[in-house]
Amino acid sequence: MRTKVAIIGAGPAGLLLGQLLHRYGIDNFILERQSPDYVLGRIRAGLLEGGTVGLLDQIGAGARAHAEGLVHEGIELAFAGRRHRIDMKGATGKTVMIYGQTEVTLDLMNARNAAGLTTVYEARDVQPHDFDGSHPRVTWVKDGITHTLDCDFIAGCDGFHGVSRASAPASAIEEFERVYPFGWLGILSETPPVSHELIYSNHARGFALCTMRSMKRSRHYLQCSLDDHVDQWRDDRFWDELKRRLDQEAADNLITGPSIEKSIAPLRSFVAEPMRFGRMFLCGDAAHIVPPTGAKGLNLAASDAHYLSSALHEFYDEKSSAGIDAYSAKALARVWKAVRFSWWMTSMLHKFPDTGTIGARIQLAELDYVTQSQAAMTSLSENYVGLPF
Ligand code: RFL
Ligand code: PHB
């Protein structure tokens, strides 16, 4: 078997890259360890930058997002018992969209099926080989049989725990990491959102976020201890704790109901440099992780896929290596700005075990500044709606 680009991983990065390459007429093949249902079942991101929606439009997969997604023009920051709105559209002229990662993934899978492109799900022992030479290949096992795919390039879109980054020589990678001393406990419920925009709350008991998937379905997060287990968080405990971390009006408006999903995610900032090893490129969470406070993970996966598809288009169309040579530096320049923004939002909004009362007062001063200064609001908004790519 042979293809131009072998893509490892059918998450948002791999599926979007596949469609962007297809639009340029570049043949590609995806290998995914899990089943389609498993991939679709992961409740993760909910917020898309305008640029990400634009990429879905470019590949003809944006119709349902425009019909069902919720366009948001601002967010609210809650602290010291009050909520303050940041008018992002007023500050930048841009908006963001609430549209779940599960829906994005489904739209991308449907586009891939409609284009007749190959995806092998439940591929075991996927392994990239010989990407330091001119004839890379990928092997995997399916139904007990080992398969080989020859290719020009390998795209490692297999997430933080994937095989691609792990296959690059350790001496060629520099890793940067911060693990935060807390996690996010998230629940999904068939209840209307508290407010029509997202509420990010800084509270002495810990951070809380009220977000949504639709006007009938809410997604809420609470900062929790890394030792916590979902079994310790019955629904009524979750709702009680959320109410305590919100301002009075939001707490009064909160409609509770049974959770449909409940999970705990650790928070981490991580970057692997470079994002290219010979004929293998890393894309999305395979190369970098950000804490979800800035809503950047999926959006970075999308901008990486954009940079990489443009670079490969230049390679095939213009017979020029300039694009692929510049990919890592170009992608990392945007990644580091999102890493900085996500770290900053996380630092401003969470309760840190080791910064004491002075840390808490500095956070309040910063939140006061960010919600009073037009310059600060514009800076937050510019990053939140997504820096250009
Ligand atoms: P994914 O989604 O992890 O997909 C990688 C795919 O690769 C497969 N795979 C392999 N396949 C073959 N062989 C192997 N050896 C393989 N190893 C792994 C996996 O099965 C999987 O299908 O990475 P990708 O595509 O880079 O996408 C990244 C995003 O999923 C991630 O950044 C976001 O979910 C982060 N995130 C958010 N991002 C946003 O932009 N906005 C948000 O509002 C937002 N909220 C969130 C989030 C992540 C969260 N959690 C749980 C980490 C909220 C949360 C709670
Ligand atoms: C979500 O809707 O799941 C979401 C939104 C914004 C964030 C994180 C998660 O910052």
Automatic annotation (TrEMBL):
<keyword id="KW-0274">FAD</keyword>
<dbReference type="GO" id="GO:0043639">
    <property type="term" value="P:benzoate catabolic process"/>
</dbReference>
<keyword id="KW-0285">Flavoprotein</keyword>
<dbReference type="InterPro" id="IPR050641">
    <property type="entry name" value="RIFMO-like"/>
</dbReference>
<dbReference type="GO" id="GO:0071949">
    <property type="term" value="F:FAD binding"/>
</dbReference>
<keyword id="KW-0560">Oxidoreductase</keyword>
<protein>
    <submittedName>
        <fullName>4-hydroxybenzoate 3-monooxygenase</fullName>
        <ecNumber>1.14.13.2</ecNumber>
    </submittedName>
</protein>
<dbReference type="InterPro" id="IPR012733">
    <property type="entry name" value="HB_mOase"/>
</dbReference>
<keyword id="KW-0503">Monooxygenase</keyword>
<dbReference type="Pfam" id="PF01494">
    <property type="entry name" value="FAD_binding_3"/>
</dbReference>
<feature type="domain" description="FAD-binding">
    <location>
        <begin position="2"/>
        <end position="342"/>
    </location>
</feature>
<dbReference type="InterPro" id="IPR002938">
    <property type="entry name" value="FAD-bd"/>
</dbReference>
<dbReference type="GO" id="GO:0018659">
    <property type="term" value="F:4-hydroxybenzoate 3-monooxygenase activity"/>
</dbReference>
<dbReference type="InterPro" id="IPR036188">
    <property type="entry name" value="FAD/NAD-bd_sf"/>
</dbReference>
